[in-house]
Amino acid sequence: MTTSQLISALIMGLLGSGHCLAMCGGVASSLTLAVKDKSQVKRYTLLYNLGRTLSYCIAGALAAGISQQFASRSTSFSFVLSVLSGVFMILVGLYIMRLTFSLNWIEKVGKFAIWQHLVKLNKRLLPVNSNAKALAYGMLWGWLPCGLVYSALLFSISMQSAVYGASFMLLFAIGTLPAMVGLAFAADKFKQILNHNAVRMVFGNIFIFYGLYLLIIALL
Q1: Nearest residue to 3 (alpha-carbon basis) of 210, 203, 202, 152
Q2: What is the mean pLDDT of residues 46-68?
Q3: Domain contains 35
Q4: Any domain includes 146
Q5: Which of 1, 5, 36, 62 is the most buried (most CB within 10 A)?
Q6: Is the pLDDT of residue 33 over 80?
Q7: Could you tell me the residue range of the domain that residue 196 belongs to?
Q8: How far is the CA of 203 from the CAs of 19, 158, 206, 220, in angstroms?
Q9: Secondary structure (DSSP) of the chain
Q10: pLDDT value at residue 188
């Protein structure tokens, strides 16, 4: 696992925070209403985000671990993974620059295949009145169908092992934390910086060029 991959995961999460706020922000905000003891809101918010991070890591470990079992038996499969990594990195770059909504189809697939089954567990966790429930609430909503998260997950399948896959998703989750935790502790200035067009254009282009680099390496 290269340093550039780790940095990509972190930046992907950081710049995707605006999308995370749109997808998960309402859930995180509703956590305040779901908590009976308002003095525990900050603690439960941190546990919620820890649970979300754990779900990302578990998903990354499963995706990378399973894919590498196939890749180790087939050079063709390994080649496909390399190409997909480049393609999705380019899509993420375009998505960050808000030039396309090319990741929306992933959300639809995730909603049909995963989320419609898991969301039924939500009622068992409300009201959030314990540390365990706050953690479990975050772990559940970590599987919310989000194009950016699923793209990071699809990129993680190219990692060489389950540990690397989990590490990639961990860095992605860390990138989302400033905005998600800031939702509870107020971080308007930070969100304005992330949503600035110049910032998005610069980093979006970085992702696109990195994706093209990955494609060139795979095709050589």
Answers
A1: 210
A2: 91
A3: no
A4: yes
A5: 5
A6: no
A7: 3-29+40-219
A8: 15, 22, 5, 26
A9: --HHHHHHHHHHHHHTHHHHHHHHHHHHHHHHHHBSSGGGHHHHHHHHHHHHHHHHHHHHHHHHHHHHHHHTT-HHHHHHHHHHHHHHHHHHHHHHTTS--TTHHHHHHHIIIIIHHHGGGGGGS-SB-SHHHHHHHHHHHTTS--HHHHHHHHHHTTSSSHHHHHHHHHHHHHHHHHHHHHHHH--HHHHHHHT-HHHHHHHHHHHHHHHHHHHHHHH-
A10: 54
Question: CB within 8 A of 54, min separation 6: which ones?
Answer: 135, 138, 139, 142
For residue 215, what are its two tokens? Answer: 């494609």
The reply to whether 105 falls in a domain is: yes
List pLDDT tens digits, range 91-130. Answer: 878 877 777 666 677 777 777 777 788 878 877 887 778 8
- Cβ distance 43 to 144 under 8 Å? no
